[in-house]
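Hi C.,

You asked whether I'd gotten around to modeling the 324-residue construct. I have! Everything is below, sequence then structure, no commentary in between.
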Amino acid sequence: MFTLSCRIVDPDLEIVTSKDGYVTLIFFQDQDMKDFFRLYPEIVLMDATYKLTNVRMPLYVLLCVGPNGESAVVCVFLTVAEDTATLATALDKFKERNDQWPSIKTVMTDKDMAEREAIRQQFPDATLLLCLFHVMWAMSREITTAKMGIREEQRCQALKALQSIAYASSENQYNVLHAQLTATMPAAVVQYFDTHWHPCRQEWVHCWQQQNVTFGEWTNNRIESINQRLKAVIRTGSTLPVFFKDLTATLACMRQERSHALSTATEKVRVTPYEAYSVEAKFLAARTPFAFKQVCKQLQLADAVTVTVSDGIMTADNRGNRSQ
């Protein structure tokens, strides 16, 4: 079993400079981060937080999800610029140190174009998804009475309609809701949606997101929580030595908390509602509660399908989930 360390071991710090000798990137990753990513690389959440250092370099955090649903920081880096080239360089440094990077299935971010282009360049086989919270926030920021010349009542109706679209459970439902939006909402709202959000619908609408490896994550709330913890410990405008001292202390504390939570989950005797020796009971005994929830969903989906073979041809009939 993988044990989370509460110490900073073998820190890997690299400083990248420009041709003129100016610092452009500070990359940090220690052995615990590498080990965690090696074991759980499937989904990566990426976001930036600001104003932590006196040199005003944004801090980018890469986060993965562990076997008990715990959040783990697997890499951090500071950049002077937030352009595609700089971010691509940082991600390339990450790839150099982590051989498991091709195993990344999903990367979730906000709608920062430079960030997303850098991810596409460095992780071409990964699916890029948008944080649903940032999507709705961006929509509410742009769909206003002043920017679109609409009434407040129309704005509220538009945001409600867009939220329904975001949670569409199927492509057919999305098409129906999109048609309703086109027919009932002001032209400015429809044009904005069709220009900015309809083309990338596979990245943020629920029915398409759930086709990818997400472990139930639809937002970057996990990484936002980590950023808030960092800001609570690291004082605004810290010098770089103080920043890294407080950063490593915070990371060590979070690892100790995760280690305790994982130990509690694996050592606690659980009461099973399943019959002894059933498939569900066996998985429950061998998995953490978080992992079992993911497996249980797949078992329910499998239970909803009847597979028949006739003349060497296999067919599957989805008859609905009997266990629900």
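If it helps when you're writing up: Residues 12-130+219-263 form a domain with the Nucleotidyltransferase; domain 5 fold (CATH 3.30.420).

Thanks,
B.
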